[in-house]
Structure prediction request, 280 residues.
Amino acid sequence: MEQRVSLVTLGVYDLARARSFYEGLGWSTGAGPDDDVVFFQAGGAVLALWDRASLADDSGVTDGGGWGGVTLAHNVRSPEEVDAVMAEARSAGARIVREAGDTFWGGYSGVFHDPEGHAWEVAHNPRWGLAADGSVELNP
Amino acid sequence: MEQRVSLVTLGVYDLARARSFYEGLGWSTGAGPDDDVVFFQAGGAVLALWDRASLADDSGVTDGGGWGGVTLAHNVRSPEEVDAVMAEARSAGARIVREAGDTFWGGYSGVFHDPEGHAWEVAHNPRWGLAADGSVELNP
Prediction:
């Protein structure tokens, strides 16, 4: 199995609300207005929004609701850019659960939840590389 | 906010078991044997394994246990490659929850759970592009 993730699908209760939130962050999708799955090209991977009950069924899981052990992160090039993205997220309607600040691991980050409760960390990690296309390199 | 995901962190109850599973799939990490976070370069992003309670605390969530609305996918170049990766996952100790087969959306896929219950779909989507480096393109 090659060492990569192709697609992250976020199960959502309200697709229109979730789509609006990511579009409010400046993301664009080719999905039609009535499509039941919304795909966003996300660097070399794809982020999808799909009905949470359908995703649970398709994934062979029982959904107890709430968070289930997965957090996403969006890495940027400087602490200032963390602040800027957190401000964008706030304006788009995110719930800010950790204001941006220095972290125990030597970086700078904040955490927001999208309207569906999915957690995103916005982070600057001075030890990781970030290529022009946004790819992250563990050992730059 | 640029349209990308840098890092997917999987919260785990048993780090050694989870690490072993991904290493059993042929993935390699630069993490030391006693590191409390295990990072895998995953294409232009990173997949991390970290203690689930620590991740919940860091992410500002209450963890009810179980699945929480996120499923990952690993896309490959042919149905035969789906079968091959599903076989590798089975050998590495995955729980197969949906055997590989034709899907309602016109592709071919199967689903496994890692030992921590995180869901992965292994998929061939004939409409998406897959570059030599494994990057997925929605509109090839």
Observations:
- The longest helix of chain A spans residues 79-92.
- Chain A touches chain B through 72 residues (CB under 8 Å).
